[in-house]
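I hope you will forgive my troubling you with a question about protein structure. Here, with my thanks, is the record as I have it:
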Amino acid sequence: MPTPHALPDLALVSAMLRNAARAEILPRAQSPDPRLKADGTWVTDADLAMQTRVQHELAALWPHIPLLGEEMTAEAQQQLMAKEAASPDGPGLWVLDPLDGTSNFSAGLPVFGPSLAWIQGGRVRLGVVVDVMRDEVFSAALSAGAFLNGQPLRVPATQVPLSKTIACIDFKRLSAPLATQLAMRPPYSSQRSIGSVALDWCWVAAGRFHLYLHGSQGLWDYAAGSLILSEAGGHGQTLAGESVFNNSLEKRSAVCAGDAGLFAQWTQWLAASDAPPR
């Protein structure tokens, strides 16, 4: 039996999530068997098995910290979040997306993985995201830095002008006016969308994208990744200029960049656009 710990340890959480992904996600990648949930999103046996395993292992190590998982009912999620928000001195809450990028996983696109964050006292304290197919573990602890496979991760310095940047843009969740402007008169050089919000944040932190824009993402999608980007020296806010994390289940937009200068130019361009913020 594992020995319970008082406080979550980043290295222990990272190893646990990586090993769970290897055991529950990788063996199912060749036959994902996707089906639609009531809300129109996809779920697979890998999502469900991963959530069950992680919940069990976290409970063995930190039995006093409850878990909020994407595959739980909306009612259960709301109850857990309300309890956490009302107890700032409590043990906090795990927030898990057992398989971010389920559509990619279902289609055989090799960009997906779990995302796990520990929230306590209205702050994201720990975050871990695993890129299963690349065997990359992105992690961060509040005020202690970000890491990639255990090595310090900092956003690379860049002298790239805004007009030559690569942007990660999720068009379908943006307002029609903003999406049209970006498609017709983009301020960047080229655009990608990889289909995993958690890895979007991490790839900005690693310098693989210069800019990021997403119109609506859930807490389990962004909690870990937003901490990783921040601790790596990156920058992010909502389209309305607010902090992305607000200790709630409210869907949030995200505007990000690794470089401070590019972040200023990117947010200024968006603010000057005709599209209203979300």
Notes: The chain has a mean pLDDT of 95. The chain has two domains: 10-153, 162-274.
